[in-house]
Amino acid sequence: MRKPGVSKTRESILKFIPDFIDQRGYSPTVRDIVKGCQLSSTAVVQHHLNVLEKAGFIHRDPEVFRSIQLVEKDIIAVPLLGTVAAGQPIPVPDSNSWTSTPEESLKLPRDLVGGRDNIYALRVKGMSMIDALIADGDIVVMESAQNMEDGEMAAVWLKEEQEVTLKKLYREPGRLRLQPANEQMKPIYVKPENVELQGKVVAVLRKLNR
Amino acid sequence: MRKPGVSKTRESILKFIPDFIDQRGYSPTVRDIVKGCQLSSTAVVQHHLNVLEKAGFIHRDPEVFRSIQLVEKDIIAVPLLGTVAAGQPIPVPDSNSWTSTPEESLKLPRDLVGGRDNIYALRVKGMSMIDALIADGDIVVMESAQNMEDGEMAAVWLKEEQEVTLKKLYREPGRLRLQPANEQMKPIYVKPENVELQGKVVAVLRKLNR
DNA sequence: TTGTTCTATAAACGATTGTTTCATAAACAA
DNA sequence: TTGTTTATGAAACAATCGTTTATAGAACAA
User: Fold this and answer.
1) CATH code for position B156
2) pLDDT by residue (tens digit) across A149-172?
3) Pairing of the two strands A139-143 and A188-190
């Protein structure tokens, strides 16, 4: 082989595919890749594509032209499972919610939710979340999670107060500190027994007008 | 013609294409459309696709299989033009900013910005926008606009105070009322000469963690 | 060395698919 | 009616493109 650097043929293919899609709007053919990556035969590409598919990087429909897809899509559909209002728990999805068709779903750029699983969205009703800088009509993107790290924004249900609140959560000896997103506001302190973790807040989305 | 309702063949094609793309991840062939819309010949589809392309609904690359694309894409790249901080005007893009490559760009779902033009995004630095329920690190999506309707969220530069603020804007006799998004806060009233409109707020985006 | 595995080259086959042609039917205006 | 434009149908052609086969070089271990 004359080109020593081409040992990374596969990575060059993996880089070429999204470039091509971005530029042309559809997937490359085997022969497009031959040209684009300066290879000399379709069989090389065929082989590498098989490897890449087996490794889970791409997906192809057999016998379908231009069907190469990067497995990581850049847009994701998040189910909009309901609304949050003052004085009532956040709807926590059970296993059914994921399979049954949600009333509505939200298309979000993948990088907004990262690689997380179990993502869902809720519409906020009323101004009860105002100390988390969340207004009526905002959409919160949640991750249902059992454990949190200090400083993460969590949705917690306060049993005594019978209300849900969105706060940054810090463990302290014998108590939890709930810190509002609005740093000018004072934190509140609660007993661990009084809180029920309902999820992490992944993102907040506010659409003005229309 | 046996089917009288098929006068809307074209609309059925226009509906079929995104459905197919959503489901399969690539564009349909002429023959896929024949099946999907229950037509009987590729020539019919060919004809309608030509009409649709001339009308600007779709785009095709001649001789390229599966190259049909809907002209309206569902994701849009918004230039991230800078940051907003307390006590300094919002960077208003000049004509250069649109052509020159921005440092960064933000992929957003198209429906977030609607059909608007002249959209750009800014990262908020500091807590100076807290009364608009906007925190440090939030991203505001702006539309550069000359005129506003009452009740729209605007970014205005207050000349005397030398600061920018995000408020809902209402015209009143002899003055402007600037209403914070946080309805618990009082509005402020300013003379029209004291304000300089810098844009409309289209959306707010808050990404937590990572 | 030998064998094995991964990668590269060349060429050909055959399926998929865009395009064209010709003929027919419908819709509509003058 | 007549003519004109637009939509439909069936079939065939030609280009694109996925796939296969057969061969060989390179890297590496035993």
Assistant:
1) 2.10.109.10
2) 888 888 888 888 887 888 888 999
3) unpaired
